[in-house]
Amino acid sequence: MRLLLPLIFLFIPIMIVANSQLSDKYDVSKEEITADGKNATTLIFTAKDASNQPIRNLNVRFKRSHEADTRLSAVTEHKRVTITPHIDGQAVERVAAETVTFKVACVDFDESSFSASSSILFTDGQDKVTLAFTAKDSHNQPVRGLVISFNKEKNRPSGSSTILSDITETDGVYRATLTATTKGSKEATSELVDFRLMIDGKPAGVVNGVLLIAPKYYFTVSKDSIAPNYEDESTLTFTAIDGGNQPLHGLAVSFKRDDEEGTILSPIIEKNGVYSATLKGFSAKKVTIEPCIGGQPVAGITEKTVTLSWQ
């Protein structure tokens, strides 16, 4: 992340007097500013002739020793930039260059906070928890440009897989979104995970209490044997509820058949977390059916077999 540090260039334009000796002055209003994208220093170059009269219409600009360094990524050490006034592209030798120091404000942890938007996350791949670190200095002002990470603590072997988005920063608030999916059993299990706040690769705090709860899935068929007459049918039912026993809506559920030839599957209908479709056929065979979410088999769910037979 790079921060644009504002430099306010204040020019005092004055007319050149022929064959005169210049009496110039160069100042900066602040020799040190915080690299927060808001603080600024004013550069003042005053040009006068030998009679102490102002010289107008000079082509004045300020040349920095490190121009790129006024757009700063996060830094931990002070950075010094030397700024020299120029007239018509030539350095003004009669005045000394001024130096401005940019530094990153220190985080005051008494003013800052690290939290989770919820203490519970359902591992259905859709539920989300936002981790947020609000960085402030001792004056309760936001601190920008920090190198932040949220590291998951090493716990016992987990039945869930967590995904943390990239961290974004707005006005000193660093956020990332956490989602999780279940690796194993269909039974509702829970585990507590901790995320450690890291600043510049160093531990800075821990947020506790994000409880991962696995959803519960059930799969049934109304008949395990049907006649291949295009009229008899078996209803496939997939039920999805979260760890709080609430229905999971809007899942991309599908029923995968190992042999689709000679079978017809109706469109899937969802109501209150129950996803259902009917299977018919006109060829004698056995069809193995596996429910999927987002095209992936559902962990812990046993596939079912429907036999199409005249017996």
Automatic annotation (TrEMBL):
SUPFAM superfamilies referenced in this protein's UniProt entry, alphabetically: Invasin/intimin cell-adhesion fragments
Pfam families xrefs: Invasin_D3
Entry superkingdom: Bacteria
Ranges for domain Big-1: 20-107, 110-202, 215-303
Family: Belongs to the intimin/invasin family.
Protein name according to UniProt: Bacterial Ig-like protein
The species this protein was found in: Candidatus Regiella insecticola 5.15
